[in-house]
Amino acid sequence: MVDRLANSEANTRRISIVENCFGAAGQPLTIPGRVLIGEGVLTKLCRKKPKARQFFLFNDILVYGNIVIQKKKYNKQHIIPLENVTIESIQDEGELRNGWLIKTPTKSFAVYAATATEKSEWMNHINKCVSDLISKSGKTPSNEHAAVWVPDSEATVCMRCQKAKFTPVNRRHHCRKCGFVVCGPCSEKRFLLPSQSSKPVRICDFCYDLLSTGEMPTCQPMRSDSYSRSPKPPLNDISDDDDDDDSSD
């Protein structure tokens, strides 16, 4: 099916429309063999709060961006190679339902669909695309992934020292290794995590000590793969002043 669509005029036209919606700031998406599988709006759990994002699933990449005008204009384009993607279902909690994790070596985050059926369709299609890519390339599926950041709202005090209260002056930071929300004094050190950045990134003292002694691999997140939204310190990752998407998220 995908192979038949690869060189069809309808597929070329659909991809061209997506490119036009992102405008000149977006990356070109039309390449030989690429097929647009589907698209839709998903709620992405950002650092500050959940936000609607437009997602496009191709047979080799996942693209998403901010919605400026629905079906007409998007910005802040992000492109994720599917061969590095692992997905994992997460339990419903409160208003956040029908969700799953999208995990990659550079960034991991949670998204939520409007219905259980939509969630199932997204996950099935993503898994199929990833499976086909790995099968064709002969590569081993990547076990490496960044941690998912704990949202700011889930931590009123530092998740490491459990003492420092966050205020407009005492700002929140995120450890890039475990994803905890931590205070400045608990995250003054930096460490090179090659899968996330070519420069040393902010990490908490706890992770720094483990990484420095070789007790923790640089390519794996500290916590387990399961995502918990409870206030107890689950471990995860991203950037500090930036959100998982951008500084405005």
Automatic annotation (TrEMBL):
Residues 219-249 are annotated as: Disordered. InterPro entries: PH-like_dom_sf, PH_domain, PH_domain-containing_F, PH_Phafin, PLEKHF2_FYVE, Znf_FYVE, Znf_FYVE-rel, Znf_FYVE_PHD. Residues 35-131 form the PH domain. Residues 152-212 form the FYVE-type domain. SUPFAM superfamilies: FYVE/PHD zinc finger, PH domain-like. Signal peptide: none annotated. It holds the Pfam family PH. PROSITE patterns: PH_DOMAIN, ZF_FYVE. Residues 238-249 have a biased composition (Acidic residues). Keywords: Metal-binding, Zinc, Zinc-finger. This is Pleckstrin homology domain-containing family F member 2. It comes from Gekko japonicus (Schlegel's Japanese gecko). The lineage of its organism: Eukaryota, Metazoa, Chordata, Craniata, Vertebrata. The gene is PLEKHF2.
